[in-house]
Design a protein that fits this description.
- The structure holds 2 protein chains of 2 kinds.
- Chain A is α+β, with helices and mostly antiparallel strands.
- Chain A has 3 domains: about 220 residues, 3-Layer(aba) Sandwich (Rossmann fold); about 100 residues, Elongation Factor Tu (Ef-tu), domain 3, CATH 2.40.30.10; about 110 residues, Translation factors (Elongation Factor Tu (Ef-tu), domain 3, Beta Barrel), CATH 2.40.30.
- In chain A, about 20% of the residues lie in helices and about 30% in strands.
- In chain A, helix 5 runs parallel beside helix 6.
- The longest helix of chain A is centred in the middle third of the chain and has 18 residues.
- Chain B is α/β, with parallel strands linked by helices.
- Chain B has 2 domains: about 190 residues, Rossmann fold (3-Layer(aba) Sandwich); about 80 residues, no CATH class.
- In chain B, strand 2, helix 4 and strand 3 form a beta-alpha-beta unit.
- In chain B, helix 2 crosses helix 3 and helix 7 packs antiparallel against helix 8.
- Classes of the chains: A alpha+beta, B alpha/beta.
- At the A-B interface, helix 3, helix 4, strand 2, strand 3 and helix 5 of A face helix 2, helix 3, helix 7 and helix 8 of B.
- The structure holds guanosine-5'-triphosphate.
- Guanosine-5'-triphosphate binds next to helix 2 of chain A.
- The site of guanosine-5'-triphosphate has 21 residues of chain A, from helix 2.
């Protein structure tokens, strides 16, 4: 890899999902192996373990390696030959650095898929070519649709075990497209692969001449990231993390300089990471929830003054007015935000063994703010197979449902379907502090439905 | 005619540069993510501290912290767990850095715990695993509720499953099977009395990212990260420095060799690699082409067992 090419390389986050034994670990191992991310000593150890366990290498062939061993990190996983928890992997090509969330398929698949998909620019869903689209495939695709993963890739794996049959591949491909259309997921890309043998993973395979699309790695190198897709389309949002007001506590190199210290004595800026959109010096901003307005007079980053910044840069903003702004407030481009709200309608992906009950008190973490919330009603449960809602009054681990939550104070929430960064929140248990659910803000259900709960 | 073409070319070139400026490369994105995490922890915890050994990952962490709070100074103390087997030049570098940034340094000493009989020296003489007790002691004494570490997920298979904010119980233990899901960039740092959180802002960086960032930001490191001549002998396929805690056996020949270190831990078990990379750019090239993971190459203690790191982390190690 040339080091000059690296200067322009960008970051791409993706996750894998699939049912047990579809070959996820093998596929990830294959990507790491073929992109030369596996270093010699790791490979030696894995080759030795593969031999110990009698993996491949029969009939005098050379020792094959069990690629799945490259990713099973915890001892319990190695002992049981399964993947328990999301593992993060890293590899790079000349064009991109990749962060891969390897999400296990069996137990707690919703929890793991939601976690992996929440930050993913793309998700690769595996299907076993011998089994075709399963109920679990539908469930995975539903979760991806809900979380609005921008790029969905279906890898029809073990294509070697069906003799690289185009007929079988085409049948699965049309099943997948039908499901995707049914749940409202845009176009998905379907690729025939053999994780074990490497077909269409890094290089296009000669075994599938009927497949004219790109290899998996080619796709991963060229698909747009979420930020690239949304840049210029989303309005500016900036959750304030903290107020930088060093006063006496200046960095030593500044306070020691003769009079430089004086110019920072009244320094006051708001530190945070752009959640969406961009900001330039001179822009009019509104602080939420207070509604106060000001103009951006400076964008600072570690001693450099920037003319503009875009998501997801971390910067500090200086404003024209001394207005009261604290952690948890959101700075937004003036005229781009509706109303802050104390009533939250949301989709909840329930991730805890502690079930959700109506009337329970929770904490809601949105951006840099945490407020108390009361679960006023659970209004439905999503049946992932049909992508339809059924009546429900509670949610259990791995359920996805809708709920109405009353907040102790108003938050600048937006609808997830239109603003993924400001439409996402966590539900936290106030007792033990654990994360109970991933929340996605929904549209206000409208007056009619609302009346049910106005007691 | 030709002038016109030149003008257009210049215009295009300028437009391209303007475009380029807004483009965030992988290091910009990793830096921005790390600064966001550091600021979250400082905002949500009462007594954070940063583990600082003078090693490259902790130096990068401290550099990120100075950027996160500019023009203010870094708003937390640093903590070093001193094995008593550290390279003197690294300790010297540590002290100079702390002085330069005006920070408070807390030191947990493995030697003191050995002297008082609370810890005993291991048969193999390695002190890295002994750091856990003084670390937890320093955390409890100082009531630190969040401790920044420079751990990276690419270092090891158990670390690959570690969260960015990782909860530790009253005994400092990590429960890998019961971790909080981490969603979007919303970090949940809630904890109860006695628990603390380890925060790993550079979780998503690789060794190569670290070196490229050190080059880009011109970050000073202890000299032993760069190729220099040193008295060494070979053991277990690594070059060991001759020193008070790493004496060669009679059959081990001492030679002078040009070497550099990829990690700077316990002198008794940290090996050097033969290298002529004298500048940071040489090192970047070397790491990009390297075929050994850094721990496997130079840390004898991590080779012991496949599960070595997992076991140590469960007990409260970094
Ligand atoms: N023939 C063939 N076998 C494959 C292929 N991909 C995976 N396998 C085999 O299928 C089995 C399951 O693969 P894994 O990678 O462990 O499956 P997984 O989906 O990661 O399963 P979990 O770790 O339990 O989530 C292993 O025996 C693999 O060697 C393939 O493309 N072709």
């Amino acid at each position: 890899m040339s080091t000059t090419a690296l200067e322009h390389s960008t970051l791409f986050r993706f996750a894998t999902a699939g049912s047990v034994d579809d070959g996820k670990s093998t596929l990830v191992g294959r990507l790491l192996h073929d992109s030369k991310a596996i270093l010699a000593d790791t490979l030696d150890a894995v080759t030795r373990t593969s031999a110990d366990r009698g993996f491949g290498g029969e009939n005098g062939s050379t020792q094959k390696i069990d690629l799945a061993l490259l990713t099973d990190g915890l001892r319990a996983e190695r002992e049981q030959g399964i993947t328990i928890d999301v593992a993060y992997r890293y590899f790079a090509t000349d064009r991109r650095s990749f962060i891969l969330a390897d999400c296990p398929g069996h137990i707690q698949y919703t929890k793991n898929t939601v976690t992996g998909a929440s930050t993913a620019d793309a998700v690769v869903v595996l299907i076993d070519a011998r089994k075709g689209v399963l109920e679990q495939t539908r469930r995975h695709l539903s979760v991806l649709r809900l979380l609005r993963v921008p790029n969905v890739i279906i890898a029809v794996n073990k294509i070697d075990l069906v003799d690289f049959s185009e007929e079988i591949f085409r049948a699965i491909e049309s099943d997948v497209q039908a499901v995707a259309a049914n749940i409202g997921l845009g176009d998905v890309v379907v690729i025939p692969v053999s994780a074990l043998e490497g077909d269409n993973v890094v290089e296009r395979s000669t075994h599938t001449p009927w497949y004219t699309g790109a290899s998996l790695l080619d796709l991963l190198e060229t698909l747009p990231t979420t930020d690239e897709l949304e840049r210029g389309l989303e309005p500016f949002r900036f959750p304030v993390q903290l107020v930088v007001r060093p006063q006496g506590a200046l960095a030593p190199e500044l306070s020691n300089a003769d009079d430089a210290g004086a110019s920072f004595r009244d320094y006051r800026a708001y530190a945070g990471q752009l959640a969406s959109g961009g900001v330039s010096v001179g822009d009019a901003i509104t602080v939420l929830p207070s509604g106060r307005t000001a103009t951006v007079v400076g964008i600072d980053f570690a001693g450099r003054s920037l003319e503009q910044a875009v998501a997801p840069q971390s910067v500090s903003l200086r404003l024209s007015e001394e207005i009261d702004i604290a952690r948890g407030d959101v700075i937004a481009a003036t005229g781009t935000f509706g109303e802050v709200s104390q009533d939250l309608y949301a989709e909840l992906c329930w991730l805890s063994t502690k079930p959700l009950r109506e009337g329970s008190k929770v904490l809601i973490k949105h951006g840099s703010k945490t407020v108390q919330g009361l679960i006023r009603a659970v209004t439905g449960k999503l049946e992932l197979e049909s992508f339809e809602y059924q009546a429900a009054s509670g949610l259990e681990l791995n359920d996805i449902g809708t709920a109405q939550i009353r907040l102790a104070s108003a938050l600048p929430i937006e609808v997830y379907a239109r603003h993924r960064r400001t439409g996402a929140f966590l539900v936290i248990d106030p007792q033990d502090g654990n994360t109970l659910a991933a929340g996605l803000v929904r549209d206000h259900p409208g007056d009619h439905e609302d009346e049910r709960y106005s007691i | 005619m030709s002038t016109q073409i030149t003008d257009t070319t210049i215009d295009l070139a300028e437009a391209a540069i303007g475009e380029q400026a807004a483009e965030l490369n992988s290091l910009d994105l990793l830096e921005s993510e790390a600064i966001h995490i550091i600021r979250e922890v400082v905002a949500e915890f009462e007594r954070p501290a940063l583990l600082f050994s003078g090693g490259k990952d902790s130096v990068v962490m401290l550099h990120l912290a100075t950027k996160a709070f500019w023009p203010g100074k870094v708003p937390f103390p640093v903590l070093h767990v001193d094995t008593g087997h550290n390279f003197p030049e690294v300790i010297d570098f540590r002290d100079r850095t702390v002085e330069r940034l005006g920070l408070r340094l807390e030191v947990g000493s493995v030697q003191e715990f050995i002297d008082s009989g609370e810890l005993s020296e291991r048969a193999d003489g390695t002190r890295n695993p002994l750091q856990t007790v003084p670390l937890l002691d320093a955390i409890a004494k100082n009531k630190f509720d969040a401790v920044f570490g420079g751990g990276r997920r690419d270092e090891d298979k158990a670390r690959a499953k570690e969260r960015i904010l990782s909860l530790r119980d009253e005994f400092g233990q990590w429960d890998p099977r019961n971790q909080r899901p981490e969603l979007w960039n919303l970090y949940n740092g809630r904890h109860t009395v006695g628990q603390h959180v380890r925060a790993f802002p550079i979780s998503n960086w690789t060794e190569l990212d670290i070196w490229r960032y050190i080059a880009r930001e011109n970050i000073e490191l202890p000299g032993l990260y760069y190729a220099h001549d040193r008295e060494v002998y070979e053991r277990d396929g690594m070059w060991r420095a001759v020193g008070p805690v790493s004496e060669p056996r009679p059959d081990e020949e001492v030679i002078i060799k040009q070497v550099r270190y990829r990690t700077v831990g316990d002198m008794s078990c940290t090996g050097a690699v033969a290298s002529n990379a004298t500048t940071v750019h040489d090192v970047v090239r070397e790491v990009a082409a390297s075929t050994l993971t850094e721990r496997g190459a130079t840390r004898a203690d991590d080779r012991i067992s496949e599960a070595a790191m997992e076991d140590r982390k469960k007990d409260g190690y970094f």
